[in-house]
Amino acid sequence: MRILICAFLACFLIPSGLVAQEKSFVLSVPQALENSGFLDYLLPRFSLKTSVRIQRAAPGAAADLQLSASGNDSNGGPAVFQGPQILWHIERVSDSPAAARFLTWLASDIGHRTILGYQPDGVSLFTPPTVERVATAPAGAPVDTAVGAGLALTTCGRCHVVNEKNRMNSIGSTPSFALLRTFDDWEERFQSFYARKPHPAYTQIEGVTAPFDPARPPPIVPLRLTPEELDAITDYVATIAPADLGAPLQAQ
């Protein structure tokens, strides 16, 4: 899917040096998708991670990115996700680098897990596209988590227990990665950790966070990551088994 979307966008992309100047785009989708509540869940999570603001236009109105609905046998543009019995695909995209960044995110492993995370009744209502025409990798292809594991140890391991390699070298009062994996919203916590105290005081995510205030320098050696490195860490954390906290307490 990633290859198809990149090919679809290739003739629209502008030089990468201009991407940082574009922090918003306009999105138009069919009314049925607006009514589903899915966008209210999906879009803020993308914006929290990237600081890209998405303006939602009325269905059919002029927009940087327009999505259309069709059956699963459609021959339309590249699919981005599917929701009950409907395939949602790209109808039109402008030269907006912010819109291109959103499509790239949707096609990523993080984007796929975010799509699956919309479970208003405990069941995923939307899924990544699975039709053959948008598949680019064999089903069940393993994800290389070695990079994420290394980054987690070198950047997070000074405070958190990441795995057995630093079990005795962390701060005891900070939760381990295995403990954090027990939370239902663990992925959102990792993806937005830089905005959660105490991390803002010493963390910089390239192209996302503002520079440190010169009057308030970081209290420790800064933690610096790119969005891609943050994704790699999250991919690794997804492979960690949640800690076994035992049975809940029962009152007599």
Summarize the structure.
The protein has 252 residues and is an alpha/beta fold. It contains 9 helices and 7 strands. The strands form 2 sheets. Strands 2-1-3-5-4 form a 5-stranded mixed β-sheet, with helices on one face. A two-stranded parallel ribbon has the order 6-7.
Description:
It is a single chain. Helix content is 30%, strand content 14%. It has helices spanning 2-9, 31-35, 38-50, 97-106, 109-116, 146-156, 177-180, 186-191, 227-237; strands spanning 24-28, 53-57, 65-70, 79-83, 86-93, 203-205, 223-225. The radius of gyration is 20 Å and the shape is globular. The chain starts with a helix and ends in a 15-residue tail after the last helix. Residues 6-21 and 131-141 have low confidence and may be disordered.
Spans where pLDDT lies below 50 across 5 or more residues: 6-21, 131-141
Strand content: 5-15%
What is the string of SSEs from the N terminus onward? HEHHEEEEHHHHHEEH
* Main sheet overview: 5 strands, mixed
- Mean pLDDT level: 81
Shape: globular
Assembly category: single chain
**Which structural class is indicated by helix and strand composition?**
alpha/beta
Rg, alpha carbons: 20 Å
Percentage of residues assigned to helices: 25-40%
Strand order of the largest sheet: 2-1-3-5-4
The tally of beta strands, per DSSP, is 7
The N- to C-terminal Cα distance equals 54 Å
Number of helices: 9
